[in-house]
Model the fold of this input.
Amino acid sequence: MDNEMLPPDSAELRALYEGFEANHLKPLWTQTGNLMPKQPAPRAIPFVWKWSDLYPLAVESGRLVPVGRGGERRAIGLANPGLEGRTYVSPTLWCAVQYLGPRETAPEHRHSQNAFRFVVEGEGVWTVVNGDPVRMSRGDFLLTPGWNFHGHHNQTDQPMAWLDGLDIPFAYQNDVGFFEFGADRVTDYATPRFSRAERLWGHPGLRPLSQLQNTVSSPIAAYRWEHTDRALNEQLLLEEEGHPATVGQGHAAIRYINPTTGGDVMSTIRAEFHRLKPGVQTPVRREVGSNVYQVFEGRGSVVMDGVTHKLEKGDIFVVPSWVPSSLQAETTFDLFAFSDAPIIERLNFNRTLIEDRVP
Amino acid sequence: MDNEMLPPDSAELRALYEGFEANHLKPLWTQTGNLMPKQPAPRAIPFVWKWSDLYPLAVESGRLVPVGRGGERRAIGLANPGLEGRTYVSPTLWCAVQYLGPRETAPEHRHSQNAFRFVVEGEGVWTVVNGDPVRMSRGDFLLTPGWNFHGHHNQTDQPMAWLDGLDIPFAYQNDVGFFEFGADRVTDYATPRFSRAERLWGHPGLRPLSQLQNTVSSPIAAYRWEHTDRALNEQLLLEEEGHPATVGQGHAAIRYINPTTGGDVMSTIRAEFHRLKPGVQTPVRREVGSNVYQVFEGRGSVVMDGVTHKLEKGDIFVVPSWVPSSLQAETTFDLFAFSDAPIIERLNFNRTLIEDRVP
Amino acid sequence: MDNEMLPPDSAELRALYEGFEANHLKPLWTQTGNLMPKQPAPRAIPFVWKWSDLYPLAVESGRLVPVGRGGERRAIGLANPGLEGRTYVSPTLWCAVQYLGPRETAPEHRHSQNAFRFVVEGEGVWTVVNGDPVRMSRGDFLLTPGWNFHGHHNQTDQPMAWLDGLDIPFAYQNDVGFFEFGADRVTDYATPRFSRAERLWGHPGLRPLSQLQNTVSSPIAAYRWEHTDRALNEQLLLEEEGHPATVGQGHAAIRYINPTTGGDVMSTIRAEFHRLKPGVQTPVRREVGSNVYQVFEGRGSVVMDGVTHKLEKGDIFVVPSWVPSSLQAETTFDLFAFSDAPIIERLNFNRTLIEDRVP
Amino acid sequence: MDNEMLPPDSAELRALYEGFEANHLKPLWTQTGNLMPKQPAPRAIPFVWKWSDLYPLAVESGRLVPVGRGGERRAIGLANPGLEGRTYVSPTLWCAVQYLGPRETAPEHRHSQNAFRFVVEGEGVWTVVNGDPVRMSRGDFLLTPGWNFHGHHNQTDQPMAWLDGLDIPFAYQNDVGFFEFGADRVTDYATPRFSRAERLWGHPGLRPLSQLQNTVSSPIAAYRWEHTDRALNEQLLLEEEGHPATVGQGHAAIRYINPTTGGDVMSTIRAEFHRLKPGVQTPVRREVGSNVYQVFEGRGSVVMDGVTHKLEKGDIFVVPSWVPSSLQAETTFDLFAFSDAPIIERLNFNRTLIEDRVP
Done:
């Protein structure tokens, strides 16, 4: 639509615009369309990072860059090509591959930013969260909610890599972050099979009577793969037996939750796990907010904005806000997913559109 | 305190009181003290029902009384001696021992009243809740929230007895109950090890993506003993290792919760399980609301209003509102507990007083 | 339906029943129908108390009975004929007419029971709530939530009568009440036009920054008639102008709310005001829970359980749980209403049935 | 602190960094300090816009720039000098002065972005929100929550200017905004004294029975100055009488709220009004989140980061996240304030530090 407010150039108009400039003012009428598009027009683009590219670079980092204080983590961030060279996978989310070599320690610190880890492969690292050592193994989803001290150490002779997700861009953009250094070594090098958090909270439907105060973030430090895998399998079995259980035909999914509220694990980040049976294709979906997925197992593809991307184990992709997307499973297809949905929903900006068509 | 409002008897006064009577009116000034006591003055009394008395009567009922339509359940209700001959364990709660003989079926029905079962001994019965067969075994806590069809059947050649808890008195007193007959037989005689509800919901911290709507009552049909037992053990182990986990020294406890909210399993009934180490004695406690306990295992005693009652496996006792009580463990002492606390708390009548003394 | 569980009489059976009796037990199978009816079967009956009967008795009480400590209030309670001679207008609610003679003082006390007053006629009394003097005038709705000290005094040479509503039966039945005497005189005999509570809270949509903590009960001590009247008028005007505003054609209504939450004024009592245009008849409605109305102005009738009762100013009637009822307005018909709906709804027992028929 | 992770330059390292670049990756260790500062380090700076500069430019815009479709509004946005030339008063908030000449109409549109208007001076404009004409007068606070159609028209021969506040930067940054054009003229040119929204909702503590569903944003379209002024006056009077009412000695304040919840008026924007008595100085305060103020009446100053800025009627200033600030009143000092606090609090990033010192 034409902008009826743009007057012809004139000396007076130029003087007016100079007055704006001198006084740190800007007219709305020269910028409406960009600032307030008809629908979300993300600068972030749909993008796939291949594990086959990522992992060797992580290994090489392990060889060349020591892990230590100041840099804090040997984490390689995914920088969405649309976001002006910033290490943002989306405007709200940070996603990185972290690599810890044999016997290395990443020092302790804490920050307002909420963090999680997801382990696509390997084991042998313990993350120590507020003094509680938490084993990291394949398929586990691990929490480090804001302002908890945490460090990591590798107990083995093998390196280990995993996915880190945080709300760093959101915190940076909105000036909400605090950061504090902790111990240079982790506070406890014990390597228990289960963290204290799990021993206290990891019992379905049971709440410790000493813990009746609800918490902003989930007190469960580790969501173990064995539970996730079993929950997904049961959904598919129930579906086969004729009972409602899945989100779509052949599509099992769980959301990780805070047991004190039944809601998302952290205030800014939602995390889920999806399993598609071979051949399943999900409806084309548009959602306000940014979604990131990592392939955990299997082969398939994602169609984003009409473009098909082949996917293999370890591949990570981002679906920016309102970009139409659909998943397709070639084999049984397991994907870990996270998003900024709690931000979007708590501020009531959520909208979803399921398109009635094949991609 | 004297009642300054009581005028001397007179013809005029008698005429006034007759006027009240004729018009279905009553003066407050003749009844304040009783109606509004300085602190809760329950008519219910502290009382212990011995399993050694209860169980043989249940067996005898099994011999003499058929289970069937109309009477619906072979349930023997605990009638608090203070409550005018009603089958109320407290003004709000119903507690009964239900007995089902070999191969018997208790027919299906549904009602607004919330119900649970707790199994102090035995196995072999399946309760079918809205068509979902739920195994009942020792130590399990099982839900039948309001308006779910349910029936039971015994698959074995052994009788089985268990504890039923409901909010029948509350529903009756406040005229909120609806009741409907269902099938004369249960709708599904399958005997799966795990109910569909458990297969969908029984994974710690994981919520099916197809079930994002919160529910008034917990969707978990069965809280299994193995989880309860492990949760309590872990609390005691964590305490021994020097970490906060128990509600008091040597006193582990869990509350059964609705995973969609983190709150109580049903709107009117709270359920918990407590484990005391040998020799532990809990502080004297007064609480608004009624609490009922059943000894699951071990030996100990309860002091109520200063009177000590010895307790053994299966014994059931009620602590009426504001009655001071304390538990004492002789052996490891396991108790199932339920109460009307959700009623009290949702209506903001809750008060607790922990007395700083030995009972 | 027949009770299939009633065995033929026998010596063994009698022995069993004696065993029950001796051990404070009762079988469910002899009482199911009464305890768990198919729909609420309230013992309370629909009933109308005529103001023309009530008020003269209140006046006579004023002449014969002094107001003072012990009896506390010259309040005459409405005793539902169905409720075994208790001063209960319903199983949950207490409703009384309180009468205070010229220059009298009702002494201060406090109790867990929630209370309100509604003024059908007159003025000149101040109720002093936690030291804050609150004027009482015709049409005002005034709160004394649980555990606030309160007393009343009449500043004039005229007597005054008003309606008291409390949750005394509920508190008594469930053993939740505490009571404490306060000053024998009220703590402040000032007679300001507006209470401090109103001055702080009575501004639409504005919350004092010093009062950001939500409160269990409304902090607004007095809901003035001028606001209620204007709100109802505006609804009817908006309806005439073609905009949605009323609950039904010609039926304006407001609910009194707690401004810190938008919910009911107190945890156990809902209060509303209804205005019907002449000729309006409301649909037949059944609701779980007890509703009490007082005619504030105008003439009309209520049909309860098919029986029509004529109503005039001051008349009070109760609609017990699930009793079908409908209001009919002869003139403009103003009714104050209160109920136990917060109890019913917070415990998820609420059901409503609007019947598609004329009464 | 030194960054121990920075290895010496080498060909291998350069190759690694080139590999990162080629694959849209970035290491965390080169950017931690900036991305995750020890405390919020806003790029936005504390800044004051003088009304004496702003207003003449608005007038000149009125002379030179027609209001119309495409540009939509003759709004002049405040561009924080620290925010890279964007029209953001803070990272989250947009603040503009809007100017509407005699008899002009700003066309209708709607958008996800939440908007409000505050009138520092003048009258004669009606904003039409979803078809409901809302008068705009001095001191009024007016809402246009997300996705409501709205346009404005000036009914008089005088121009009018007011303050617009929106969450445009937040919506833009996070890709959550939708926008739709509406009628080129407003849908209703009526000029009622009170909007339908006010007539329905503007009664303290009274909720229309037809409106029991809670709403995401406040249904009150206009918060009138007369109520705000009275509420503030009453607080100061109550303080003088010795009662708790103000937030600090001589400092009255109200928050505008959504009456359906008691919470903020919109999901992303908080609005308040503050009144300081002459001579009052508020404690130095740091808060996570951005606050914007406009002087409504009186003279005083604000100290931000230790720098004192003199303030007069109409002046607007921003306090970026965690910047210490204090207000000082020379005369009675009235300020309208708005912030992104609902964003910060709903995502649990809120922190406040009151410093125990004079600025």
Notes: Helices of chain A lie at 11-22, 32-35, 51-64, 168-174, 196-201, 225-240, 341-346.
